[in-house]
Amino acid sequence: MPTKAPDTPTLEDRVRALEDRLAIYQLMMSHPPAVDGGATDVWAQAWTKDAEFDRGPPDPEAHSGNYEGSYGLDVIIKEMSGPEIQAAREAGLAHMTTVPYLIVAGDKATATNYTLVFGYEKQGFRIRRLVANRWNLERRADGWKIRHRALRLLDGNKEARDILRQGVEAGIL
To answer: Could you tell me the pLDDT band of residue 117, with boundaries at 50, 70 and 90?
Structure first.
């Protein structure tokens, strides 16, 4: 009977890897409709209790709450349910995120992608923001969760390019 090489993944390993990727994609792809639809509970449950959201410096066109720097779940939830984002929803708001470049290693994963934010104006929609994202995710007892997310406006700054480059070069941070 042939023996399996020690580094050859089993069928169970391969199925689990596919399930992990699908769960992470679902988690990340739930973000835009949850934000735009005002599903605060769904959005908040995507984050770990000790999560951090790092937006870096303010962008030239203030986003909801105009939060900047790094902050935790309490501020994330405050922003998600705040009057600024509600006003943006009522004016016509659409977040779109791209499928990520994803590296999964055990119970941790790193995803790198883009998010576009569209706003409705009299002549139609226009892109209000385009950012580079780095998502650090962890498998918890209740599934995959966002532990840290950093984004930087793609306005030519080096930090945004670094997020993209490091995402494909370094893998898990």
So the answer is: very high
Q: Can you list the alpha helix ranges (DSSP code H) found in 51-154?
A: 73-80, 83-92
The residue assigned the tokens 């406006």 is 153
SS3 3: coil
Question: What residues contact residue 141 under an 8 Å CB cut-off, 6+ apart?
Answer: none
What residue has token string 């209790």?
Answer: 49
CATH topology of domain 11-169: Nuclear Transport Factor 2; Chain: A, (3.10.450)
Express each pLDDT in 61-99 by its tens digit: 666 556 667 878 888 888 888 888 899 999 999 999 999
Encoding tokens for residue 134? 């780095």
User: In the numeric block, which tokens belong to residue 54?
Assistant: 């790092």
| Half-sphere CA count of 8, side-chain side, radius 13 A | 6
Q: For residues 25 and 170, what is the distance between their CA atoms, to the nearest angstrom?
A: 20
What's the alpha-carbon Rg for the chain, to the nearest Å?
18
In the three-class reduction of DSSP (H, G, I as helix; E, B as strand; rest coil), residue 72 is classed as strand
Q: Full-prediction pTM beyond 0.90?
A: no
Cβ atoms within 10 Å of 13's Cβ, excluding its own: 10
